[in-house]
Amino acid sequence: DDSYEYETKNIYTTLGFYFQNTEKSKSRYNYNGFVTQILINYVRFKTGDDFKKLLNKIFQNKIKNEHTVHFYELRDPSEELGISHPMVRTTRYDWLRLAKAIMDDYQNDTCVGKYLKEIHKRRIPKQYNKNKNEPEFNRTKSYGGQFHMDYPGLKDKVVFGMGGYGGQAILIDMENSRIVVLNSLHYNNGKYKYNVKKLLIDPIKNGRWNK
Which residues fall within 8 angstroms of residue 150, CB to CB, at 6 or more apart? Predict the structure, then answer.
């Protein structure tokens, strides 16, 4: 049902709506935000009363964000049903701080760094040529652990990418210490579309932005 909005429903309702009396099909890439919603609700469930402490440890102590990070919640009386929304909002510079923390972990081979290398190793193909329904800034050749990977034009580079609403994009070149954060007004409106190659791919590839 294309009209069903999982973002406004708790996990319990969505699972009941879609997954009752179903069986697992063949695994394939299918980008959606519901996986993100499951992950954050699972972490919230496992950490319980320590969930906010975990967020503070990550964002304040590790990333050292300067401003408040907003985690959305659904209007629901019970956390047991899964009420965390997959959307997160923070400032543009704090997004950059987050990207740098990811890159630092990868380069220093920390526990998180080992995980990042593992999901890169286990990434799955996206059938790039058939994936025209995704916006251009997400049209990579593979995907792993919530990151887009193997960007066209960046062969043999370990680049982790994230693409958000309205054309927001982050590309992290893990091995060459290059990060590009692009803040966009509304990519889905033709008036605001940007040149993906010029503003995202070329700066990662060449280490500079060409006018």
Answer: 123, 140, 141, 142, 159
2-31, pLDDT tens digit by residue?
678 888 888 888 888 888 888 888 878 887
3-state secondary structure 194-208: CCHHHHHHHHHHHCC
Burial string for 33-49 (b: 16+ CB within 10 Å, else e) reads: ebebbbebbeebeeeee
Q: Whole-angstrom Cα distance, residue 107 to residue 78?
A: 40
d(CA 154, CA 98): 22
Give the least confident one: 117-121, 142-146, 168-172, 184-188.
184-188
pTM (2 d.p.): 0.88
Please, what is the Cα angle at 189 between 184 and 195, to 5 degrees?
A: 55
